[in-house]
Amino acid sequence: MMYQNELKALKKAGRFRQRKIWDNTLIDFASNDYLGLANDKKQLNKALQLVDEYDTHAPKASMLVNGYHEIHERFETTLAQQNGFEEGLIVGSGFLANMALIEALVRKKDMLFMDEDYHASGMMATGLLSNRVILFKHNDPEDLEKKLKLYDSGRKIIAVEGVYSMSGMLCDREIFTLADKYEALIIVDEAHSSGVIGKNLLGIFEYYDIKPHDKHIKMGTLGKAYGSYGAYILANSQIISFLVNRGKPIIYSTAPSVIDTALALVNIEHVAQNSQKFYKKITKRHRIIKEQLNIEMYSLILPIEISSNAETLQIQTTLLAHNFLVGAIRQPTVTTPILRIIPRIGSSRENLLRLCQKLKER
Fold first, then answer.
1. Residue 247: which residues within 8 A CB-CB, separation 6 or more?
2. What's the domain range around 267?
3. Cross-strand partners of 325
């Protein structure tokens, strides 16, 4: 076989992965469905009723041909207004959004300063930028400023995450201050912070009480807190127009799914209308983790470091025997293997307490 040796090596290192359909009776503390919307049939029916108002329910072509649908436009307008940005842009996935932003915005004389723990999609995009990328130490404003001082010509662009997907750590507030000080554009990947933090669950900008301005760019996904699929970019109108004209994943991809966009739209409106209820439920789950495991949480990502890949998989298997599904994350996604636990609203507090007890027993 062509890749037999490589697959053997992955298995030996405990890094082999495969797709699996999990038993739907398992108690889900693994998925990024933070608010439990992925199985909300009422919301699904609302989305289908919305799509049924239009003659077309599929995108048919790229957005620049005739794939741009009224539901896409409604979604973009709604999300931009909610978050205080000038304009929005629907994109097929978070991976495509990061590829588009980084490949298009970092021009020949510009420099991109990216957190070393930024998502793999952003890291992959930097491969297209030659010598226009500088990585700074994870969530380290001091290291970032030291590197920002070295460059005077061209635009400076900073790329960070609102909540880092493996650690659950919030982006340091000082990084926003540095972006302003050095007049840098800042791309904030809010995949794991939108719908999770802030009093109205609008993400890191709201959490830090930062009013978006022309140099702020917010990117996020729809397959996590918002219970659908796809992604978005929020920015000033000039940046959005530039991306529409130069972002290859936007220009050359079929327009995003109309049905998924409709589901994201009704879910975003639902979260906005019920943000205080969701906020209280998230706070109660934080309290359980603090009381049971003595860990302070600020997002809905709880990483527990494990000494080896083999032990990580073994603990996951033990928890499965008790009907709990948690993530077993190994290299190269993380440096040190972790159990990645999501105390999501879709799973009850009683079950979260039971899971905490099992974790303490291990």
1. 100, 101, 103, 104
2. 55-273
3. 28
Over the stretch 97-109, which tens digit does the pLDDT of each residue have?
999 999 999 998 9
Cis preceding-peptide flag for 332 (omega within 30 of 0): yes
Q: pLDDT digits over 222-256, tens only?
A: 999 999 999 999 999 999 999 999 999 999 999 99
Q: Per-residue confidence at 124, pLDDT binned at 50, 70, 90?
A: confident
Say if residues 75 and 235 touch (Cβ distance below 8 Å): no
Co-location of 263 and 328 in the same domain: no
Longest Cα–Cα distance in the chain: 58
Q: Which pLDDT tens digit goes with each residue over 273-283?
A: 999 999 999 99
CATH of the domain at 347: 3.90.1150.10
DSSP assignment string, 306-330: -S-HHHHHHHHHHHHHTTEE-EEE-
The alpha carbon of residue 178 and the mean position of all alpha carbons in its chain are separated, in whole angstroms, by 23
CATH number at residue 80: 3.40.640.10
CA distance 29 to 45: 25
Task: Specify the number of domains making up the chain.
Answer: 2
